Structures are given as C-alpha cells and as structure tokens.
C-alpha cells in the first residue's frame, strides 16, 4: 500500500441545521442527517481513497454493529481495512454532531476501542512497507505512547517511509504526550489551538518555530477560516483558505491532511501540497460530514 493511516476510527452521526436541543420529548425537524466514517485515521483514509490514493487503515473498533458499519463504509470507499482490529466486548468510537447553521460542530463523543489500540493490534510490516504512514489522533491512542512504537517509526523512516501526524482533540492534558512523537515525524499538521497548547507559544509563528525544533521537516498549522501556516527550516508562509459557503467544518482537518499527503506523493513541494490540502478541505466544508463534496475528488487532484 502507498499510504497507511494508523490511529483513531470513529463513526459520526450528523444532523443539520441544529440551533438548539429540543426540550423534553420535543422534536425539531432538520434538513439532513448523515452517518459517516470519521476520525483522524479513518476519515483521512476515506478522503485519500476518494482522491485515488491506494490506502490501508489500521486501528481498533468494537465487535458491535457500529464497527460493522464503519468497516463496511470504509471498504466501500476503497480503503483496505484488513488492518483494523475488532475488540471483543468494546464499543466502536462514535460521535453525535448537531451542526449549527454557521457550520460549528459541538459533539457528544465516546472514545471506545481507540483507547486500547496498541502494537499488538497490527502487523509492523504494514508500517515498514508503506510509502507514507499517517498517524491520526495519537493524543487519543494511549497504548501507542510506547518506545517500541517510536522505534518502529524510526525503522520505517530509515527505510524511506515518510511519517505524518495529525491530532484528534484540543484537550490540554493530552498535549504533552503527543509532543513525544515529534522527533519521529517528517510532517506535523496540528490546528492552531493544539500548536499553541503543545508549545505554550503566544503566536502560531512562534509555535511553528518551537515545533520544528523538535524534529519534523515541516509543520503545517491549520487556522480555520484563516487558512494555514506552512513552516520549514527555510521560513514560513501563509496559505489562505478558499472563499466558500461553509456548511459543516467536520473533517476539514482530515481532508487537509489527505490533500497534503496526496500532493506529497504526487511530487509537489510542501507549499503546493498544502494548497491542495486547502482545496480538499474546502470541498468538505461545503457539505455535511467528513467526506462531503469529494465524489469527483480524483479530478480535483489531477486538476490542481
């Protein structure tokens, strides 16, 4: 496989537009409800498959109906899910997302089987044989905070594998452990809040400088409507967001990662790959769910 996405797998149930939670037993009618494959590994894998990139995913789900659905929908989109472990007696991670009219997305979340995903749940050859490994949500996969996993990443990189990482949460207590992965990465793609929390910096430019000092060749900090900051040893550049009508911001970070990865594999520069990530994220923001707007994404890749 060209890419392996390794980490968090979630089922999202989304409804829009939701202005308030009904009182008592009341019902509010909405325009749209969807259920999708999501999470920093599963969502990115689906987006990569939509872009035409061969991709396998590794993670953990429960032996429940939600796990059945998640694997089915990922496989239907073209993701190889043979590396996703089924955890007996555990629940598949899931989120309920009432999407506000402005695209905001409060959530109700159960982390489920993701918390126990560890080295014993996948074949190391999957990592060692990949052209690129994307770590999705290492802040929430506590069992991978393991020197043996870091050694596996280092072995893969020594053999030519590129390693990228995105995070899942904005929980301050999880950021110090996430920082331990930085010496084992080539590219780190946090959002603004995560970057500031990890570093304690006052600005994203200062945060990018501090993160680069930890080892990655480039740091790409997503800034929501402000686009992203792309920083390498040669300097930092801003990539503006596209001007679109936002429907739902769910999965935009995963889409940015997928576009960036696809761009790297296409031989583009870091900055040009970030521009492709921006375009893919804009497509997703224009619809409901983590894979919205990507039905013709292969054309997006070839046309960028």
UniProtKB/TrEMBL annotation:
Q: CDD domains, per this entry?
A: KdgK
Q: Which residues form the Carbohydrate kinase PfkB domain?
A: 14-292
Alphabetized UniProt keyword annotations: Kinase, Transferase
Alphabetically, the GO molecular function entries are: kinase activity
* A GO term from the CC aspect: cytosol
One of its GO biological process terms is: phosphate-containing compound metabolic process
Gene3D superfamilies registered for this protein in UniProt: 3.40.1190.20
Alphabetized InterPro entries for the sequence: PfkB_dom, Ribo/fructo_kinase, Ribokinase-like
**Out of the domains of life, which is the source?**
Bacteria
Keyword Transferase appears in the UniProt entry: yes
**Pfam families, alphabetically?**
PfkB
Residues in coiled coil:
none
Keyword Ion transport assigned: no
Q: Which PANTHER family match?
A: RIBOKINASE (PTHR10584:SF166), SUGAR KINASE (PTHR10584)
Q: What is this protein called?
A: Sugar kinase
């Amino acid at each position: 496989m060209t890419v392996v996405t390794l980490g968090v797998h979630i089922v999202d149930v989304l409804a829009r537009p939701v202005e308030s939670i009904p009182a008592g037993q009341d019902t509010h009618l909405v325009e749209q409800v969807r259920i999708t494959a999501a999470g920093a590994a599963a969502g990115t894998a689906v987006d990569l498959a939509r872009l035409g990139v061969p991709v396998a995913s590794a993670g953990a789900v429960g032996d429940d109906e939600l796990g059945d659905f998640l694997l089915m929908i990922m496989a239907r989109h073209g993701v190889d899910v043979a590396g996703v472990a089924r955890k007996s007696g555990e629940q598949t991670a899931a989120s309920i997302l009432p999407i506000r009219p402005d695209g905001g997305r409060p959530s109700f979340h159960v982390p489920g089987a993701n918390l126990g995903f560890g080295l014993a749940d996948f074949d190391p050859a999957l990592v060692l044989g990949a052209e690129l490994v994307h770590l999705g949500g290492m802040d929430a996969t506590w069992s991978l905070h393991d020197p043996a996993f870091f050694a596996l990443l280092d072995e893969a990189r020594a053999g030519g594998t590129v390693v990228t990482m995105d995070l899942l949460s904005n929980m301050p207590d999880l950021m110090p452990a996430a920082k331990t992965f930085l010496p084992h990465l080539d590219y780190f793609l946090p959002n603004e809040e995560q970057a500031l929390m990890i570093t304690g910096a006052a600005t994203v430019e200062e945060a990018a400088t501090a993160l680069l000092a930890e080892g990655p060749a480039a740091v790409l900090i997503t800034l929501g409507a402000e686009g992203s900051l792309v920083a390498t040893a040669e300097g930092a550049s801003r990539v503006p967001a596209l001007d679109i009508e936002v429907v739902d911001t769910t999965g935009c970070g995963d889409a940015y990662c997928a576009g960036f990865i696809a761009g790297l594999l296409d031989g583009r520069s870091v900055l040009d790959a970030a521009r492709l990530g921006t375009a893919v994220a804009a497509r997703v923001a224009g619809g409901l769910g983590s894979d919205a707007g990507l039905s013709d994404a292969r054309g997006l890749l070839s046309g960028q």
